[in-house]
Structures are given as structure tokens and as C-alpha cells.
Specification:
This protein is of the alpha+beta class. It folds into five domains: about 190 residues, Hypothetical protein af1432 (Orthogonal Bundle); about 150 residues, 2-Layer Sandwich (Beta Polymerase, domain 2), CATH 3.30.460; about 110 residues, Beta-grasp domain (Ubiquitin-like (UB roll), Roll); about 150 residues, no CATH class; about 80 residues, 2-Layer Sandwich (Alpha-Beta Plaits). The protein is built from 26 helices and 20 strands. Strands 1, 2, 3, 4, 5 and 6 form a six-stranded mixed sheet that branches.
Length: about 700
């Protein structure tokens, strides 16, 4: 069992002035408090906090953090109080233990929601002191090491998945690579044992055959460094099973195709030597294209710095090489602890982790915990791209971010009013992905508003939250306008001149605080015009009769997002399909018509009547491949035998289904053909039209 002296000796290796008596007191306190408690493994519970303390020492954490690690379960699992810890070990330790401890029990509708709530509390605690997160990671690492003792497989896999998706990326985000690697490999073993064992067996074979190769390559690289008069240390290794599996997945290749399984690290004295060594390697060995990364000039968002390159190195082996200084290596190995300057009194200089504060700010505006939980997986990832503002500032965004993500990272107002962007001086759409080094400029229009499909353009939680918030606000306004329009159109239909006073009286009689609430309730169909009419008759003592069939007033089977529950009227002028930009037009006393935005008939209807126009968008259900929609095409074709059959073959080849074909007017050697077909969405229709236009015998294809 780990002794107090073992802990003291471990801390002394990097902090000689450790308070030995305080470490001993914490050790005895935890031992006494946990007493005879037993873990699922059968070991005394006290072994767990000791292992956590040892992990923290391996990360070179300060003595307060090590003590808090020893005591991190005392509040939750014993009768210890925060005040008691504060009096004995100081407020720093007490606050860290409180931050790590699971807070008050609460009911939750789902595991995911409960998981998200715990994560939220962890982030809020970590925002006040990053050491709380490090203790939590050490706690999770030891729990993962003893995961095999949990009897229920479903529980083990749940914990492993959570570790792989959340805790390992968090460890990487703050730079504790050692913890990240162990978490990933243990979770990988639990979730995919067959794949793990397969890769591990191949690696074991590779170890046996590669030991000589690694030493030979190391010697060759050392000779190169000596020729360049560079003092350095060089080490080689075979990558971990999880790292190899990730690369196989990302590149979609087999184990045999993965050539850069060996990685070499070169640690030099200064930055100049980093680039000098890189130049020597590139001069002497064939460089693998698109595999160079300069994390020195542009550090990762966890402050990691290094040069990465892949070359066909000595012995004609494809290898990955990392070049860094000793200080950079310290950061890469120990993460956040490497940034702390230990003083005689044990104080330290904290590093700013604004990303945690950003997450806390974002989750306060999220519509639900499950949504935050899902989106935060992207936000905490340390994989980033770095782009440049027009003023030359560097902005870090998660890999896969679009220019719209960039706009929202500047400010929500910039994102909401974005109309297009300049990427490296060229105009590009808002969904364009950003690459490292891109210069991004956002063009805005204060009259512009977010569009529903923007949610598909972004990956950052900040952008998703801002778009959803703006759309919710717009949707409430839209529902209000629908309700207000329905209200006044109804009375106008009956030639009733209703005053503002009448409106207020109806709202009050129906228990609404304002006319706004009245109109909103009508817009959502929670309140029918039949109810409104009854109230009006009661107030005015009239016998006005209702002529709208309320049984039909809330029917809607179209897969359109947030379509108000009022009758949907068929139209013959256009045939909207999922992906089309669509609008709704309220017809007085009848219902709503759905048109393609460019439809000329709909545009003529709304001239001078803008209040009747309602922007709409398709729901996700609309894009179900099993659901088919009607589309109409007009085709001008060379009228020769076999051409109609060829047209049918083209359409069927693109999975379209012709349900009607009519030959129209003929002129010279051409004919106009009207085709009705079934498709799944606008993307499929576009592909069909492109295929038709590429046929030599077809002169023109238009949608009708």
C-alpha cells in the first residue's frame, strides 16, 4: 500500500518544500474517515484516493491538489463537512473537494440529462479552479483502471463511452496527454475488445520485429542532428492501439495500409534548432505531402507546441516526427501543471482557460441539457483550425467549422446578420469550411435574419445556441403574426369593425394578460376562433355565427417545421419538395398555401400584403428517403424515335419514378414534353435535371 512517505517523496521530486506533516495529516484523515469501506474490486476504499493522489503527483500537481485528491470522496461518502476540511487543510483544499464531489441528488428524466447536469456542474467548478477538473480526471482514470470489476456489462460500456467522448477530450484540452492516452486505451478495450485484441496482437508482433528498426532510425536521426551541430534527445515508439484505430477510421484504411505506425520525438534546446532540425530532415528524407503541421507558430488551444512532419525516413520507413524544445516537451507531458511557477510558499501562476468560461456562458443559454451535452462534445475537442481576421487576429475554432461559425465567434449580432463571407479575398457561401491559415471576413446586413437551415452549417455550440435562440424569437413573432392575422381576417370576413378596446376586452375575458398572448394562443391553435367568437358575442350581446369549420382548422400532415395548425390548401402553380425555399400565404378565412419562394403566382398574391407572407422551412422528417414528393418538369427534346425511352431511362437511373408523361406542342423537329415524377428531395431533382441536360438530344429542362 502507498505510504505517506511515498507521496512526500514523489512531490519532492518537483517541489522540495512540501509540507510533510500536512501530507501525513491528510493521509491519516482519509484513512480514518473511509474506515472499513470496500470497493467493488474488494479492495479497501482508501486505496482509491491514494491512487488518485499518485496520479496527481505524476502530473506534478501542487501539494494542495494532491491533498484534495486524497480527500475528494470524504464529503460524498463520509460524514465529513466542508467546514471541517477548511479548518484542518485550508479553504483551497476544501473548495477543490467540494467542486469535485457529486452535488445534491436530483431526479432526471434520462441518463443523458443527468450526465449533462453533472458535466455542467463540473465545468462551473472548473471555471473557478482548473485543478478541480484535473482531480476529476485523475479520479476517472483510476476508476477506469478498475472498471473490469463492475459486474454489469451495460454499465461498464456506458462509463467507457462517456470517458471516450467527454473525459479523454477534456484531458487533451488541458494538455494532460498521459491521462488522455490511458483513458482512451482502457475505454477502447472495453467498448471494442475484438478490435483492440486484433490490433494489439499485430502490434506485439511489430514490437518484436521493430525493436531493431526503431533503434536504427533513432541512431540515423541522431547522426543527422550531430552533423547539424544540434544537441538533442531522440526517442521512438509504436503508437497506441486506440491511436492506430482512430487513424484507420479517419483515413478509411486497413492496418496493413497504415504506414506511419512509428513515431519519433526530437527534443532540442531552443526554437531556432526546431526549425533547423526540420530543415535537415526535409533535406535528407522524402516528405509525405500534407502531413506537416507547425504548432510552434500556431499553438493548439491547449498551449501544445511542436513541429509535426511525416517522411520516408531511414530504412525507407514512413515515420512521424515531432520536434520541440524542452519547455514545449514539459507542456506536452504535464499539460496545465507545466504552466505553474512554483514559489517558495507553494503559490502558482494560473493559466487562462477561457474556453471553460465560454462553455459555462453558452450552457446558460442552451434550450436543454441534452442539447448542450451533445454539442459540447465538439466544443471541448482540442482539434482546431486557426483562421485570421481582417485585422490580423488569430481565431481558434473546432475542426470542421464554417465561416458562419467564425461569424458567431466574433459576436452573435455578426452571425445573425451575416449574408456572405470573403475567404482569402474570394466571396464564398456561409457554409464554406475553414482551413488552417484562412483569412475570413464577414459581410453583414442589419436587416438580415438567421435562416432555419443555418443550424446545419455550424458545429460550434455558441453558433448553434445563438441561431436557435434567434429562430425561437422569430418563430414566436411569426406565430403571433399568424394569430393576429387570423383574428382580424376573421372579423373582416364578417364585416365586423372591431376596435382595440374590443380586443382588450376579449383578451381579459379569456384570462389573457394582453392581446399579444391572445394572438399567440390563436397562432398556436390552443385557442380557436370559435372560442373568440363566443366571447365576442357575450361581450357585445350579438348572435354572430361562425362559418369556419373548426374540425379542419388544426389539420397539418406536411413535414414542415413549425407550420401553424391551420388548414393547408392545395396549390397547382408549383410543387414544393424538401430542400426548396418555401413560404406560406394565409388565405382569408380559408387556411395557408405552401409555395416555392420563387413562385410567380405567390409573388403576385402578396403584392402590397406583406403581413400575409410567412417564411417556412422543411422539418427533418421531410428528408426521409422513403417518402416521395411530386415534381413537374418541362423538357424540349429532339422528337425522334427512342428519345422518350432514353428520357425514362435517365430518370429511372437516378431513382426517379415517372407517374405521368404528356407530349405537348411540336415545332420543327422539337417537341415539348410535360413529365410528372416522384422524388425524395430537391437534391435528387437537381441530379435528374443535370443528367437530362447532359443528353445531346435534350435542348432545355425547366421545372414547372
Amino acid at each position: 500500500m502507498v505510504t505517506p512517505q511515498d507521496l512526500i517523496n514523489g512531490i519532492k521530486e518537483y517541489y522540495p518544500n512540501v509540507d510533510e506533516s500536512l501530507i501525513e495529516r491528510a493521509y491519516l484523515f482519509a484513512l480514518t474517515k473511509h474506515g472499513t469501506q470496500i470497493r467493488e474490486s474488494g479492495d479497501p476504499f482508501f486505496f482509491h484516493p491514494l491512487e488518485v493522489a499518485e496520479i496527481l503527483i505524476s502530473l506534478r500537481m501542487d501539494q494542495d491538489t494532491v491533498i484534495a485528491g486524497m480527500l475528494h470522496d470524504t464529503i460524498e461518502d463520509t460524514n465529513t463537512t466542508i467546514d471541517e476540511l477548511g479548518k484542518i487543510f485550508g479553504n483551497n483544499v476544501a473548495n477543490m473537494v467540494e467542486g469535485v464531489s457529486k452535488l445534491s441528488k436530483f431526479e432526471s428524466s434520462s441518463i443523458a440529462e443527468k450526465q449533462a447536469e453533472n458535466f455542467k456542474k463540473l465545468l462551473i467548478s472548473a471555471a473557478s479552479d482548473i485543478r478541480i477538473l484535473i482531480i476529476k480526471l485523475a479520479d476517472r482514470l483510476h476508476n477506469m483502471k478498475t472498471l473490469k470489476f463492475k459486474k454489469k456489462k451495460v454499465r461498464r460500456q456506458y462509463i467507457a463511452k462517456e470517458t471516450l467522448e467527454i473525459y479523454a477530450p477534456l484531458a487533451e484540452r488541458i494538455g494532460v496527454t498521459k491521462v488522455k492516452d490511458e483513458l482512451q486505451d482502457i475505454a477502447f478495450t472495453e467498448l471494442y475488445p475484438d478490435i483492440y485484441n486484433s490490433i494489439k496482437s499485430r502490434l506485439n508482433h511489430l514490437y518484436e520485429s521493430s525493436e531493431h528498426i526503431i533503434s536504427t532510425i533513432t541512431s540515423k536521426l541522431t547522426e543527422l542532428a550531430i552533423s547539424l551541430d544540434i544537441s538533442c534527445t531522440i526517442s521512438g515508439r509504436i503508437k497506441s492501439p486506440y491511436s492506430i484505430w482512430s487513424k484507420m477510421n479517419v483515413r478509411n484504411i486497413s492496418f496493413e495500409q497504415l504506414a506511419d505506425i512509428m513515431a519519433f520525438r526530437i527534443v532540442v534546446d531552443n526554437v531556432a534548432q526546431c526549425y533547423q532540425m526540420l530543415g535537415g530532415i526535409h533535406k535528407n528524407y522524402l516528405v509525405v505531402p500534407n502531413r506537416f503541421r507547425d504548432y510552434i507558430s500556431t499553438p493548439k488551444n491547449n498551449n501544445y507546441q511542436s513541429l509535426h512532419t511525416s517522411v520516408i525516413g531511414p530504412l525507407n520507413k514512413k515515420i512521424e516526427i515531432q520536434i520541440r524544445t524542452k519547455e514545449m516537451h514539459l507542456v506536452a507531458e504535464y499539460g496545465i501543471a507545466a504552466h505553474w511557477d512554483y514559489k517558495e510558499n507553494g503559490s502558482r501562476t494560473k493559466v487562462d482557460h477561457q474556453w471553460i468560461n465560454n462553455l459555462v456562458h453558452i450552457l446558460e443559454n442552451a434550450s436543454g441539457m441534452e442539447e448542450f451535452w451533445e454539442n459540447s462534445k465538439t466544443e471541448i475537442s482540442s482539434n482546431a483550425v486557426y483562421c485570421i481576421t481582417p485585422k490580423g487576429n488569430i481565431v481558434s475554432l473546432p475542426k470542421g467549422s464554417s465561416v458562419l461559425d467564425f461569424a458567431y465567434s466574433i459576436h452573435s449580432d455578426v452571425g445573425n446578420s451575416a449574408i456572405e463571407s470573403r475567404l482569402n479575398g474570394q466571396l464564398v457561401p456561409l457554409n464554406t469550411k475553414i482551413e488552417n491559415g484562412d483569412q475570413v471576413e464577414i459581410l453583414t446586413d442589419q436587416n438580415h435574419i438567421p435562416e432555419p437551415h443555418w443550424e446545419d452549417y455550424v458545429v460550434t455550440l455558441k453558433a448553434k445556441t445563438a441561431i436557435k435562440k434567434a429562430l425561437n424569437s422569430l418563430e414566436k413573432e411569426r406565430i403571433f403574426m399568424i394569430g393576429r392575422s387570423n383574428f382580424y381576417e376573421f372579423f373582416k370576413w364578417h364585416n365586423v369593425d372591431i376596435s382595440e378596446k374590443d380586443v382588450q376586452a376579449i383578451a381579459k375575458n379569456l384570462k389573457f394578460d394582453s392581446a399579444t398572448q391572445l394572438f399567440y394562443s390563436i397562432g398556436t391553435c390552443e385557442l380557436t376562433m370559435s372560442d373568440v367568437l363566443s366571447t365576442y358575442n357575450e361581450i357585445k350581446q350579438t348572435g354572430l355565427k361562425l362559418i369556419i369549420d373548426n374540425s379542419e382548422s388544426c389539420k397539418n400532415t406536411l413535414p414542415i417545421r413549425n407550420l401553424p395548425n391551420i388548414p393547408v390548401l392545395p396549390v397547382t402553380c408549383c410543387s414544393p419538395v424538401p430542400g426548396d425555399r418555401i413560404v406560406g400565404i394565409i388565405s382569408r378565412g380559408k387556411g395557408i398555401e405552401i409555395h416555392i419562394e420563387e413562385c410567380q403566382i405567390s409573388n403576385n398574391q402578396i403584392d402590397g400584403q406583406e403581413k400575409r407572407l410567412i417564411p417556412l422551412s422543411w422539418s427533418k422528417e421531410a428528408f426521409d428517403e422513403k417518402v416521395r414528393y411530386l415534381a413537374k418538369l418541362a423538357i424540349v427534346v429532339v422528337y425522334e424515335p427512342g428519345n422518350l425511352s432514353a428520357i425514362a431511362t435517365i430518370i429511372e437511373g437516378k431513382n426517379g419514378n415517372i407517374i405521368n408523361l404528356k407530349i405537348g406542342e411540336k415545332f420543327e423537329k422539337f417537341a415539348r414534353i410535360q413529365i410528372e415524377l416522384e422524388i425524395s428531395d430537391i437534391a435528387q431533382l437537381t441530379i435528374i435535371m443535370a443528367a437530362l441536360r447532359s443528353a445531346e438530344f435534350i435542348q432545355k429542362v425547366t421545372r414547372t
